[in-house]
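User: Can you model how pyridoxal-5'-phosphate sits in this protein?
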Amino acid sequence: MTQPPRRVSHRVGAITESATLAVDARAKALQAAGRPVIGFGAGEPDFPTPDYIVEAAAAACHDPRWHRYTPAGGLPDLKEAVAAKTARDSGFQVSAGQVLVTNGGKQAVYEAFATLLDPGDEVLLPAPYWTTYPESIRLAGGVPVEVMTDESSGYLATVEQLEAATTERTKVLLFVSPSNPTGAVYPPDQVEAIGRWAVERGIWVVTDEIYEHLVYGEARFASMPTLVPELADTCVVVNGVAKTYAMTGWRVGWLIGPADVVKAATNLQSHATSNVANVSQVAALTAVRGDLSAVAAMREVYDRRRQTIVKMLRDIPGVECPEPFGAFYAYPSVKGVLGRQLRGRTPTSSAELCELVLEEAEVAVVPGEAFGTPGYLRMSYALGDDDLVEGVTRLHELLAEAR
Ligand SMILES: Cc1ncc(COP(=O)(O)O)c(C=O)c1O
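Assistant: Here's the modeled complex, given as structure tokens:
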């Protein structure tokens, strides 16, 4: 008997739903049905986009110039502004020709891997990792090679670990600091050591700097190609306006790389999506040309919530929470709760625990399974202070019943 033709290709059929978006959608659906669900699932700022950015976009809507196609790789002024902003914020000197404006940082990640990888090329991927990385690596024909980290190192991978995972098929290292999902921030000397190792081994680096401005306490953001200038020819930087300016819905990001890679990625984008919506690009131009006072104010609020959530999580029996120094996530271990009786059930995985927490405490959190490390929860603290306290209190009350 002949098999019926496949309706969905192997390549796309293998993609899993984004677990973080799924949790967020489930929480929002329950809220819409009148349930008092508190969501720690969303990976986005809870602030509105600053007014001056919104006003620039509103004015752009009325200008017929922006009603038409524009260059696929981005508005020339925005590419210039991104180059200038990069020199200002991270010290990395690039020309506008090395910038490709994308439909969010997500498209930049996808295009970076699509442009660099051939089938079978391996990508070193420190875990816990953001869910989109392995999917976009696989879509490009690459093979993600996980490099496991845990709370004992504050979720930081070492050169020794990366070296041990390297083979002759290794082409790229994915590096992200501050990290989603852990909030970990690599100290500058470790960023430099990893960058120097990558240069010596001839391994490309895709470095995701989207949380560069959300760093707290003594921690400092450090850009790998700035600390290791020899890396510039084999490095792609991913960034965007989403997290810095509370602009997740506007969909503007970019990638920066060597001119030949950027040209190739621009060709890809010219056939896939063409230019990013012009109104959004004008909004992003206003954001990156402006100062950083809006993000400074948001950072202060996140920092306050960060300290609250870490302190509260550490008070819960069976929960361990290393201090996150960046982004807006805490990544506690719940291994001490698993396998114990809780409201008549015995959750043995963080995925099962998250189900139970949603049903019994009406609190939405993302299980570590989504990030390649079962036994953990990701909790975004980009939500109102009162909700944060109420949500973690409910979690505490529930988990304290584990026997
Ligand atoms: C680590 C990381 N990189 C990139 C992105 C992409 O953001 P966007 O596509 O909204 O610009 C995100 C969003 O969650 C992220 O967490």
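A couple of observations from the model: The mean pLDDT is 96. Residues 26 and 359 are 11 Å apart (CA to CA).
User: Helpful, thanks.
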